[in-house]
Amino acid sequence: MRIQANHVFFSYDRLPVLTDINLDIREGTLTVLCGVTGSGKSTLLRLLSGLAEPAAGTILLDGGQAAAGNVSMVFQQPETQLFAGSVHQELEYGLAERGVPGPQRLELIRSALARVGLPYDEFGGRSPFLLSGGEKRRLCIAAAIASLPGLLVLDEPTAGLDPQAAGSLLELLHGLRRSGLTLVIGTHDLDSFLPIADEAIVMSQGAVHYSGPASTLSADPLVLTGAGLEPPAYSRLGHRLRQRGLLAELPDSLDSLLAALAEQPLPAPPEEAPPASVQIPRLSWSGGENLLPAKGNMAGRSSAATDIQTASARKPWQRLDPRVKWLGMVLGTLAVLGMQALLPLLLASGLITGLMLSARIPWQRTIRFFRPFLLMFLFLWLLSALTWSSPDYKLGPVGLSLAGMERGGLNVLRFLLLVALGFLFTETTTGAPLREALEWGIAPLKKLGIRTRNWSLAVSVTLQFVPWILDKLAQLQLALNSRGRKARGMARYTPRQVALLIVPLLILVIGMGDELATAVESRGYDPTKERTPAYLLSWQNRDTLVMLCILLAAALLWTVSRFS
């Protein structure tokens, strides 16, 4: 399958991520896509796989738009790609979503598992969650190729694998390329993938820095260093040895380097050993002694620029003392909980909306956060309107009650406002300030023998845990979409979809909880001892002004609520 990208642009939260991308990837080739973190390569992989749409420009497969089943993608973390109770069901889900008839599925499943080295008779009935890391990665590839796609996109396929599993996976991908499948691989592991690649694409600051034969990157390492990347080890050593006249040609892989060195005569031993204080010179592409890219070059510059822009956008809120925001959170929560009429709830909605706009939280992130809550609360609202006695509108054995609908609507709005307060709070307050302010507020409880450090740790972890769960949920949804189900709106949360998401999400949450517990234990956490603050609280005049505004707003909402 041939892939063409023509003048592709993409933005995320109003920040440009990809700019004027033009590519032409030939059919049956293995293309390496590389770049520093934040260069846009993961976003480009999603565009090529059809999981995201460009803001401008076109991506054509075989001269036309992508068709269902033509493209499959394998993500970096296998734990965010596995859903079903058995290996057989894991592959069958994707085939069913792509419309493959039932009688044909077993043969395709057996063939895909055989190609990745997981025999069906041995692995077909096993749970995907009990496989090893390498086996999970192979299963994800099997699920991707079972539908016989023309293009396979992989994001960091060897990340987290031991050398033996990584080598086995490389052989698998090399075999898939020989079978005629077009592969695009996003990776930092240039030592492994450049030797087997046909083409290479180097990304830098959201643009294509280089696109052409992969062999050029070994012959001219300045292409990589210019994008902030470190050339492969065999290339660095080959250039240095060639400068000293020990190699006639540059190696294109580690094997060719070792073969060339094996033909060289062993040098005579030195007459005098160098002193221990002598430093080994760093290698350089430019004729000096520094071969490695210097710190502070292009590496990470794109992501740093994004972070600077984001931090600048939220600077007014970030400069506030966290104790002011805790005060606003507490008073806002109490005010909302005491509202029983529509007018004060509408006033509170307008106030919170204004605060979110002033905080400059990206609207796309806001929508992603609230979408699951909106669907859940809509269901609860409709449920509260159902009644079996004296309905206003008859719907078979049950009916709708206008009074119940009104009460349910007020409760839903109240809960949404509480969620909005929490979202505003966590989006504008990082973990360390949040915890220090909480510990300051509950410090008097120490006199009662209460371990306030445990409380502050639990609250701060919980508040920071919710956004993490929502991000993981988005990753799981994306993985489901990669299997052929491009669900939108309510279809993303059907009972079947929710059932598929529950198990992997619980596994991720339990794993994260275990990691947090291990981290706390490894740091020697003792709630009875004083600790050095991670963030110094500083009260400024602007904090006093904001506090007065919060008190006035809370008093206004309380007054309106009391007389409504």
From TrEMBL:
Bilayer-spanning residue ranges: 326-357, 369-388, 408-426, 493-513, 545-563
Protein's membrane topology: Peripheral membrane protein; Multi-pass membrane protein
One Pfam family of this chain: ABC_tran
Location relative to the cell: Cell membrane; Membrane
ABC transporter domain span: 3-230
InterPro entries recorded: AAA+_ATPase, ABC/ECF_trnsptr_transmembrane, ABC_transporter-like_ATP-bd, ABC_transporter-like_CS, ABC_transpr_CbiO/EcfA_su, ECF_ABC_transporter_ATP-bd, P-loop_NTPase
UniProt entry keywords in alphabetical sequence: ATP-binding, Cell membrane, Membrane, Nucleotide-binding, Translocase, Transmembrane, Transmembrane helix, Transport
Record protein name field: ABC transporter domain-containing protein
Species this protein is from: Paenibacillus helianthi
The organism's taxonomic lineage, starting at the top: Bacteria, Bacillati, Bacillota, Bacilli, Bacillales
